[in-house]
């Protein structure tokens, strides 16, 4: 058996790729490695399959340019060749950006940069910037988050400590773009929860459509996760 080397892919999910679920994404990459002729470590047992692990599962419908997948490569192929080989067999909307040796463990992930676009068919309300600022300047903001582990079916979560910083990046006639750095895990803050909290407090300012995009993932010290 060839010596294994732990590596990671950085890839993007855009376009039609945003509708591929987390489990389907893992299965898709397992098949892609096989089709690309790349030998990676497989699980033991009767039903063996190529092992891959994705950091921070992405919600269906969200896009990203900073997804991270980990795998054990059993060959000494130059890492610069891996993206091209995989991109030839991956579906539309999924594109590998780079391949590199694994460095930081997943458990050290702390924050994510998000681009949150609020779209309004009838035009962006003039008071939305002030309303957003007032909400995110609150000392606390407790919301109910669905939880399968709770007997009540939900847990209470203060989202203010999980918003590390934010700013309004762009406002046009029909959309407002919010940039925010949010907690990534233990606990995590889904940007949709932030939007839902805003709409709950300001029902007249509820957007007609929301787009959420991951821009970057960081360690606690602010360094980009590798």
Quick rundown:
The protein is an alpha+beta fold. The protein has helices at 22-35, 82-87, 128-136, 191-201, and strands at residues 5-13, 52-54, 63-73, 94-101, 109-119, 142-146, 154-158, 163-171, 175-183, 209-219.
Question: What's the layout of helices and strands?
Answer:
Elements: E1 5-13, H1 22-35, E2 52-54, E3 63-73, H2 82-87, E4 94-101, E5 109-119, H3 128-136, E6 142-146, E7 154-158, E8 163-171, E9 175-183, H4 191-201, E10 209-219
Parallel strand pairs: 3-10
Antiparallel strand pairs: 1-3, 1-4, 2-3, 5-9, 5-10, 6-7, 8-9
3D architecture notes:
The structure is a single chain. The protein is an alpha+beta fold. It is 18% helix and 36% strand. The chain contains four helices and ten strands. Strands 1, 2, 3, 4, 5, 8, 9 and 10 form an eight-stranded mixed β-sheet that branches. It has a two-stranded antiparallel ribbon with strand order 6-7. Strand 6 and strand 7 form a beta hairpin. The radius of gyration is 20 Å and the shape is elongated.
